[in-house]
Design a protein that fits this description.
Among the domains are: 7-91 and 171-239, TIM Barrel, CATH 3.20.20; 98-167, Maltooligosyl trehalose synthase, domain 2, CATH 3.30.1590; 262-372, no CATH class; 451-521. It has 25 helices and 21 strands. Helix 22 crosses helix 23 (593-606). It is globular.
Length: 692
């Protein structure tokens, strides 16, 4: 089984089941999709809207339709020549679950004791589940304690700081077989592997998985701008955050008006995470360091993880990343830590520090620094680099060519269930980089009237408001509650600040209805549409396997989850698609139908198979406003930096086309090299050889 031509991601929930997904199979086929890409389908906690809290990996989730529903879905997809790609969660399970209950009942004598990563040195499993004023409750093999003790005393590994998600020792062959037997029996097209950085030995896991699965295999590995996947992993590529960074970046104008010291904010955020919510993990690792005082070992372990230049290393691969972290660290015990890790790169000390560094980086950077450093939040994305402003077409072409030659079947994405904001929000916010003074004047004026007292949240709030406009007070309020608590500056999930929480909760009602807000949102709407269409066409036709996140075939102005898991109205999309199939050329307007046109045409072209990568260069006074490339006789043309272009126009700028006759499949018209004519209907064009 090869890679699908494209995927369409859906979020299974109790209100969107296997049967509901089967009902849209015909729509997806008409759209041009190659495979349905579903969120986790194994049995999860009752009511879960995401499915990553797996409770039983031995059966399809009954709430979604169970195994009968899963088989019916695959049959329906097959009837429409669509594949199925499934998201799997090898790192953790939700507790309690039947295996966990057996462990609590029987302790180390349980047949499942080895399934979970428990430190049995204290003899009992610590369960931080009691209210603040409740006394400890011992059981035969566990002790229930105050919930606040979890972050410092927990003795089982978990998913980040979520105590209810206990880590699974999938490196054990018996555990691997027990947790993968069911999903591997389904015969799916592809697997998306969640959170590989939490595994003890990601490379070993993927090699074992590949022995049992010969389909398309992509991994949720977050790569830095100058990082690549370990060469020894037998996978097809990542889930596409690296491509997201590059595709969005090429539509952002370079500017220094939003500059700040991101790395200082990032470092302090990581340090706070290591010292607080992940202190239990740090202390467990420190106990493995020999020959140094415990507190010194704690300081060294935390500092090295805080200083990682990437999420984690995979020793002995990636030794340079480990060396960088060590060189940046000054704690007295770092030398001893380094020597012991190098002496046994596959040992428990090296393994645990690598597993945990990714947690420190992710929680410190994505879930803290990105909510604190808010100068220009279009760059604050998973895998993003807020200190790298924009990407030149030349650099984009080089990276795209590298993907084509090295990982042509890697997934590419613009929106996911984990993105901080949707692709269309980022596309609109990218406009701010072209008009920084105008935006900063707007933010200053509106802040004088209705500012939030904490400056970084204030900046985030105004950008989120104009980026997601129009947005309800309720949605914006829920987002700002999450943002303020993730930032951990004046309030947090653990230690609430009632006065500040009330201020944040009251803000949307004051700001949403301000005339200045709607006026500014209207100002950036049209150029935002241009950026949206441009980045979408580029993603769908560039190297890699493009994913369309549910509903984003129309404009989607969602913020971070759970906002991006709201129900999708497929009837609206069916009706618009039917009109497009009849030859309708929609205006670029609030309906988003123009984006649906771009998605449908590009996905159908994509199914023909696109190979190779040839950059094309425009000539003339507005040449910098074009991103163009050719693949297998298909040419992509996208407008970039539309505000500056609007001021000066295309003038005599042309895009020399190889060969004689080309047709723009978006409009059905013969293509011309004159960009003013080629792009007079849409800010993008998709050209194929020959006449209409």
């Amino acid at each position: 089984m090869g890679a699908p031509s494209s995927t369409y991601r859906v979020q299974f929930t109790p209100s969107f089941t296997f049967a509901d997904a089967a009902e849209i199979a015909d729509y997806l086929a008409r759209l041009g999709v190659g495979a349905l890409y579903g969120s986790p389908m194994l049995d999860a906690r009752e009511g879960s809207t995401h499915g990553y809290d797996v409770v039983d990996p031995t059966r399809a989730r009954p709430e979604l339709g169970g195994d009968d529903g899963r088989r019916a879905l695959q049959e329906r997809l097959g009837a429409h020549r669509l594949g199925l790609v499934v998201d799997i969660v090898p790192n953790h399970m939700v507790v309690p679950n039947p295996w966990w209950e057996d462990v609590l009942a029987n302790g180390q004598e349980s047949k499942y004791a080895r399934y979970f990563d428990i430190d049995w040195s204290s003899g009992k499993v610590l369960l931080p589940v009691l209210a603040e004023d409740a006394p400890d409750e011992p059981g035969e093999h566990f002790v229930k304690v105050n919930w606040r003790r979890g972050n410092t005393e927990l003795n089982y590994r978990r998913f980040f700081d979520i105590t209810e998600l206990a880590a699974v020792r999938v490196e054990d062959p018996e555990v691997f077989e027990a947790t993968h037997r069911e999903v591997l029996s389904w015969g799916v097209t592809g697997l998306r592997v969640d959170h590989p950085d939490g595994l003890a030995d990601p490379g070993g896991y993927f090699r074992r998985l590949r022995e049992h699965f010969d389909g398309w295999l992509v991994v949720e590995k977050i790569l830095g701008p100058d990082e690549s996947l370990p060469q020894s992993w037998p996978v097809d590529g990542t889930t596409g955050y690296d491509a997201l960074r590059e595709i969005c970046g090429v539509f952002i104008a370079p500017t220094d008006r939003f500059d700040g010291d991101f790395h200082e904010v990032e470092h302090s955020s990581r340090q706070q995470v290591a010292d607080s919510i992940l202190a239990a993990e740090v202390r467990r690792i420190a106990r493995l360091v020999q020959g140094v005082p415990f507190e010194d070992a704690c300081a060294a372990v935390a500092e090295v993880m805080v200083n990682f230049p990437v999420y984690r290393s995979y020793l002995p691969e990636g030794m340079r990343h480990w060396e960088t972290a060590v060189q940046r660290s000054k704690s007295s015990a770092v030398r001893a830590l380094d020597e012991q890790v190098r002496a046994d790169p596959h040992g428990e000390l090296a393994t645990r520090i690598q597993q945990t560094s990714g947690m420190v980086v992710a929680k410190g950077t994505e879930d803290t620094a990105f909510y604190r450093y808010t100068n220009f939040v279009a760059l604050n994305e998973v895998g993003g680099s807020p200190d790298r402003f924009g990407l030149s077409p030349r650099d984009f072409h080089q990276r795209a060519a590298n993907r084509e030659s090295g990982e042509p079947d890697a997934m590419t994405a613009l929106s996911t269930h984990d993105t901080k904001r949707s692709e269309d929000v980022r596309a609109r916010l990218a406009v701010l980089a072209e008009i920084p003074d105008e935006y900063l004047a707007f933010e200053s004026a509106t802040s004088e009237q209705h500012g939030i007292s904490e400056p970084s949240l204030n900046r985030l709030a105004w950008q989120s408001l104009v980026g997601a406009w129009p947005i309800t007070e309720e949605r914006l309020g829920q987002y700002l509650e999450k943002a303020s608590r993730e930032a951990k500056i004046k309030t947090s999930w653990v230690d609430r600040n009632a006065e500040f929480d009330a201020e944040v909760a009251a803000w949307p009602a004051k700001a949403v209805n301000e005339p200045e807000v709607s006026a500014f949102a209207e100002r950036i709407k049209a150029p935002g549409w241009s950026n949206s269409l441009g980045q979408k066409l580029v993603q769908l036709t560039a190297p890699g396997v493009p994913d369309v996140y549910q509903g984003t075939e129309l404009w989607d102005f969602s913020l971070v989850d759970p906002d991006n898991r709201r129900p999708v109205d497929y009837q609206v999309r069916r009706d618009l698609l039917e009109r497009i199939e009849s030859g309708w050329l929609p205006e670029v307007d609030d309906s988003g139908a123009a984006k649906l046109l771009v998605v449908q045409k590009a996905l159908h072209v994509r199914k023909r198979g696109l190979h190779g990568y040839r950059p094309l260069t425009a000539e003339g006074p507005a040449a910098e406003h074009v991103l163009a490339f050719e693949r297998s006789g298909v040419i992509t043309v996208a407008t970039r930096l539309p505000v500056a272009l609007e001021r000066k126009g295309w003038q005599d700028t042309v895009l020399p086309l190889p060969g004689s006759k080309w047709t723009d499949v978006l409009t059905g018209r013969p293509a011309t090299e004159d960009l003013a004519s080629l792009l007079d209907t849409y800010p993008v064009a998709l050209l194929v050889r020959g006449e209409s």
